């Protein structure tokens, strides 16, 4: 059996931990640049807010219902996520992080000594006691069914935070009541195709013959069908290597100066290189794109992008940043108010099988790789961007995204540690 531990409204729950007066009140968290709602509490949903709503359009609803708004603070959320994970690892031998707010716990062997539902309720209470983060747990033979169970545990208090699907009768009842669009692994196109075949519930899909699924769908959909029938086949331990890596942002203020635009591109290039090294890969192409503000019809409109090929595949931040700066110089146009820029790394391959170039222009590449590893270790120890290229500019640059409602990094920055007035 496998259990999915899912933190309820995680971003909002973390903010409420440090603002206890918000319990039972509507709260929402905004996306980068304070644009759209990315997380919200049930109380916020009750007043008419939805995930994805642009905050400027919902301003009247927010003010009328006294909704508390926060900017995204990933440092704080990541720190709290580590605490929840540490509690899980102290309670269950094999824990696999799937996302910042979800973890799979493998319970094979625990059924001989524990009532699984009761044991996981104890873990839920332990997480609540130590972190004040509410979690929902689904227990089932497969990960997809465990996700279904966690949704029932979250939506129905009668389960007391834990829903276990341990029999075929429970499985069929759960799939009959569950929304097909919410099944893990079924996207919009697959959903539309299933609906065309008259399949409207997960149970109807699970009851189809294997040959029927094989003849009409690709392997991922077949795996979802097997999981819905209680056959575990999805391996989330090894995440597939990304074929391209992109970092892009809308600016807090429009940018016209080339140097300011260059610092933003350098920052995005460095972030891409860091992600590239994180998956032990190298890239052969660097693409840069820039866009004006399409909502400002009173200003000249412009958008362009170009790609620079690297002579040797690399994950070196310096090399990638220099290539991005070179690409930007060829597409920059004066007199344009730029609102967004981005960097994309492509032609990604495994760093373990790198073919050296006889005419490589960087003779000290092994030392440069060691330098990158050292910077990564320092940033992991002292915080992201603690050590960065001067070309990335200051944290106060005008292009930095807005975060007017950001809470402090209470768990990771001594200068922002929470203070309490007594």
Account of the 3D structure:
It is a single chain. The strands form three sheets. This protein has a five-stranded mixed sheet. Strands 9, 10, 11, 12 and 13 form a five-stranded antiparallel sheet that branches. Strands 3-2-4 form a three-stranded mixed sheet. The protein has helices at 10-18, 42-46, 59-64, 74-91, 116-131, 143-155, 168-177, 188-196, 202-206, 210-216, 219-228, 258-278, 317-331, 365-382, and strands at 2-7, 27-30, 37-40, 68-71, 94-99, 102-106, 135-140, 162-164, 245-255, 281-292, 303-314, 338-346, 349-350. α12 packs antiparallel against α13. The chain starts with a strand and ends in a 40-residue tail after the last helix. By secondary structure, it is an alpha+beta fold.
């Amino acid at each position: 059996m496998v259990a999915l531990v899912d933190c309820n409204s995680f971003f909002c729950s973390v903010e409420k931990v440090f603002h206890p007066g918000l319990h039972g009140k509507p709260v929402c968290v905004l996306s980068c640049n304070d644009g759209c709602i990315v997380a919200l509490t049930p109380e916020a949903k009750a007043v008419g807010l939805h995930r994805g709503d642009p905050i400027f359009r919902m301003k009247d609803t927010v003010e009328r219902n006294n909704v508390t708004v926060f900017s995204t603070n990933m440092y704080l959320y990541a720190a709290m996520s580590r605490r929840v994970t540490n509690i899980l690892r102290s309670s269950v031998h094999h824990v696999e992080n799937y996302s910042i707010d979800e973890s799979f716990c493998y319970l094979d062997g625990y059924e001989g000594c524990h009532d699984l539902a009761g044991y996981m309720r104890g873990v839920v209470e332990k997480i609540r006691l130590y972190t004040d983060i509410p979690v929902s747990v689904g227990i089932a033979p497969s990960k997809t069914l465990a996700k279904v169970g966690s949704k029932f545990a979250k939506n129905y208090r009668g389960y007391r935070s834990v829903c276990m699907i341990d029999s075929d009768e429970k499985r069929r009842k759960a799939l009959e009541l569950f929304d097909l669009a919410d099944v893990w692994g079924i996207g919009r196109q697959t959903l539309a195709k299933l609906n065309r075949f008259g399949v409207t519930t997960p149970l109807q899909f699970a009851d189809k013959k294997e040959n029927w699924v094989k003849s009409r769908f690709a392997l991922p959909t077949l795996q979802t069908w097997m999981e819905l029938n209680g056959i575990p086949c999805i391996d989330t331990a090894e995440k597939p290597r990304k074929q391209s890596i992109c970092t892009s942002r809308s600016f807090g203020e429009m940018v016209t100066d080339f140097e300011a635009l260059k610092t933003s591109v350098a920052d995005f290039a460095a972030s891409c290189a860091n992600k590239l090294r994180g998956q032990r890969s190298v890239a052969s192409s660097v693409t840069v794109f820039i866009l004006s503000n399409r909502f400002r019809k009173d200003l000249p409109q412009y958008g362009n992008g170009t790609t620079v090929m690297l002579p040797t595949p690399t994950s070196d931040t310096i090399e990638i940043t220099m290539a991005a700066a070179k690409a930007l110089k060829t597409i920059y146009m004066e007199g344009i108010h730029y609102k967004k820029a981005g960097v994309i790394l492509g032609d990604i391959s495994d760093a373990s099988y790198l073919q050296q170039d006889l005419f490589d222009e960087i003779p000290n590449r092994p030392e440069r790789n060691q330098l990158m590893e050292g910077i990564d270790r320092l940033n992991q120890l002292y915080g992201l961007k603690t050590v960065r290229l001067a070309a990335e500019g200051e944290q106060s640059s005008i292009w930095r995204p807005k975060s007017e409602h950001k809470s402090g990094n209470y768990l990771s920055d001594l200068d922002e540690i929470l203070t309490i007035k007594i």
